[in-house]
Amino acid sequence: MIKSHHVLRFFFWLVMSTIGGAGIVLLGIYLYLAPTLPNTEQLKDIELQVPLRVFSADGLLISEFGEQRRNPIRYEDIPPLFIDALLASEDDAFFEHSGIDLKGLTRAALELIRTGQKRSGGSTITMQVAKNYYLSSEKTFTRKFTEILLALRIEQALSKEEILELYVNKIFLGRRAYGIEAAAQIYYGQSINTLDLAQIAMIAGLPQAPSAANPISNPDRARDRRNYVLARMRTLNKISDEEFQRAARAPITARQHGLASELSAPYIAEMARQEAVQRFGNDAYTAGYTIHTTIDSRRQQAANRALQTGLLSYDRDHGFRGAETALPIRYLQTPDDDTLSEWLNQAQDRYDIDWLTTFQQWDQHLRRQPNLGLIAPAVVMSVDDHGGWVYQSNKPPQRLPMSGLTWAKRYINVNVIGDEIKRPSEVIAAGQPIWLYETTTGLQLAQPPEVEGSLVSLRPDDGAIQALVGGFSFSNNQFNRAIQAERQPGSAFKPFVYAAALERGFTAATIINDAPVVFDDANLENTWRPQNNSGTFYGPTRLREALYRSQNLVSIRILNQIGAGYATRYIANFGIPREKMNRDLSLALGASALTPMELATGFAILANGGYAIEPYLIDRIENDRGDVLYQHHPATVCYLCEKHASKTDVESEAASALGLTEAPSSRPIAPRVMDERVNFILFSMLQDVVKRGTGRRALVLNRNDLAGKTGTTNDQKDGWFGGYSRDLATTVWVGFDQPVTLGRWAYGSNTALPIWVDYNQTALNGVPERPIEQPEGVVSVRIDPDTGLQARPGQTNAIFEYFREENIPEMPLSAPNGYDHDGGDFIPEQLF
């Protein structure tokens, strides 16, 4: 008995000594680490790394930029089912413990003793918050003790709900997704609130191995982890057995989703990103800045569609360049009827492995294809005499009819295509990767066009960019042709030469001789013999006619009269850089390379009546609290200012024109750079381009307030159309990136103009007509169309023409020399 008593006492003191020693050690560790612990109260004001976001003027998300994809979510917005799944997976006693799980820590310690390896078990959600916000991921005893102490402090400073909100917004879940809302968007393209049980369990299981076990990188391992989470939820009675069984059998539906963009405008997004980085440096990617652009989402969508439709149309007209090499295929039997789904179901029983393997290989190919907007990648499954069956990822097999193949005559060169297509097999074969275009009558074969283009649309009153597309596909090529491609505008530049001439005293009725001419200009390399595009010479021609017929020789003679130096100085007022303009007679034909944006700026100034504006994209930039960090104040047209109207009337007019909710009193007034009378006369001349000249395709818009000019460069390398109403100025360019001919029948009127018309059918829909009013000092006079002089009384072929008061032509007192009173031709003694 005495011996047993001594043994018990020995063990008692041994245990007490061990506990005391451990306590002293822990106290020492606490005293050592406590001074180094951060202030956990800061977590209440923590600023997460939030990406840069770009929005349209009407609030649609265009894009976001940042290494970390994050969409912070509040605790009350987290689905309760997700909370159940997360706690079942990570910390089922979260709402009971005080920040640490003694049982888990003990289990981790025993594992260390047994294996001699440090592992990560035993961490609660609170400890993970401590690690994610304050600590590194290294596995050392010091970091683990610091994590425990921080967790205890966090529990004292924050509520359980606040801790959980911090956790779900900070945790890394693979594929650049930080936080559960970003993960839901990336893996499923949906909000966390719309996911089903299987999808929720998948995301709840990701924190353990977000890179190695996510459903895209390793679907089998992700399925096992998901089903473990479901089993834990079933064990904790968070779901029923039926719910467990159904979710555990659910297929893996996760795939890589891009940004949940509400508006496709990638060229705009990149322009906004570059400006944000210039202003804020790399903080732009993490500080949660929001950029509000001037983009009108309806017009931007119309621009996307119009440009792609126009380029695809040009491409189809020039033939099919051939499909890609066929992909592997295991089963090539053609179905006997039109119900391919039934045939596949039968084939599945007999050829399950072959079809599964084939589709998996095809899916890999299809996933690698870029986003090309209106056309989508597919693979031909089978071909018959009436068309073929095609496969697209996540879609049932679809029929490609013969009518969708007939356009695909073989491309020979830009001017020649092959014979008619008689059989589908001449164009497609089983296993071939192809592209499809969906029309109202069914699928149509397509191909990514080699031709490129751009569209720029500006609000004339202040230069706000309403829509911009820099090419067929940003995914294929990030070169922004709208602001980077410098191309000759051809005849689309002539309005500015004519404006300079009108300012110098020429009139719309001035007679210019359209006849052959040879120039030996010291500024030109060789003797120059310009011609009209048609090869025809029209003789004496009024300026109005010359403009809507786009007669080159008249433009050259005009510039020769007014001088290239004066012309460049005057045209620079229209936002066209003077240093880019040739100071020789080639300027008259638009031989100076400009960007589509620069040409659009010039047309916008014509559209607003002759006031200098500058194009701009960013309206304002806000921080994550909604504070305005930058607000653009563009020079804005004030039509009533020149009439000395009251400030109230002026601001009311400006607010109405720009669609603003409050008066833009902080905006500077745009200066006038063009005589309003010259502007009006030129507008009426450019209206004739639409009504009776090369712009007649625009008549389909059935509006009387449109004006514009086509442009085609030498050898048809570029096609242009620049046009405007009072409310919108838009330029379209079509051409190849490396300048080569578009074909002998390609002109601005049949390449760029159809795109302009298609865009404006939407862009101007619902916008009332606002013709430019005839200003004071402009008079309408009856003239002789052959001489440009005032018409004689009773002259039957007289027409009306607009003039500035000081430029009214004389009334002939008698028939001038060369004029036959019986109606013969008048030949002026001297022509410009």
In short:
The chain is an alpha+beta fold.
Range of strand content: 5-15%
**Mean pLDDT across all amino acids:** 84
- Uncertain residue segments: 25-37, 332-340, 346-353, 816-832
Structural class: alpha+beta
Number of strands: 21
Describe this structure in words.
This protein is of the alpha+beta class and 832 residues long. It has 22 helices and 21 strands. The strands form six sheets. A five-stranded mixed β-sheet has the order 2-1-3-15-16, with helices on one face. A hairpin with a 2-residue loop joins strand 4 and strand 5. Helix 8 (197-204) crosses helix 9 and helix 15 (494-503) packs across helix 21. The chain is elongated. The model is unreliable at 25-37, 332-340, 346-353 and 816-832 (pLDDT under 50).
Summarize the topology:
Layout: H1 2-33, E1 52-55, E2 61-65, H2 80-90, H3 102-115, H4 125-134, H5 141-157, H6 160-170, H7 180-188, H8 197-204, H9 219-235, H10 241-249, H11 266-280, E3 290-293, H12 297-317, H13 340-367, E4 375-384, E5 387-391, E6 398-401, E7 411-413, E8 416-417, E9 433-439, E10 442-446, E11 452-458, E12 465-469, H14 481-484, H15 494-503, E13 511-514, E14 539-542, H16 543-549, H17 552-562, H18 564-571, H19 596-607, E15 618-622, E16 628-631, H20 647-658, H21 676-692, E17 707-712, E18 718-724, E19 729-735, H22 748-763, E20 778-783, E21 799-804
Parallel strand pairs: 1-3
Antiparallel strand pairs: 1-2, 3-15, 4-5, 4-9, 5-6, 7-8, 9-10, 11-12, 11-19, 13-14, 15-16, 17-18, 18-19, 20-21
Helix pairs in contact: 2-8, 2-9, 4-5, 4-6, 7-8, 8-9, 9-10, 12-22, 15-17, 15-18, 15-21, 16-21
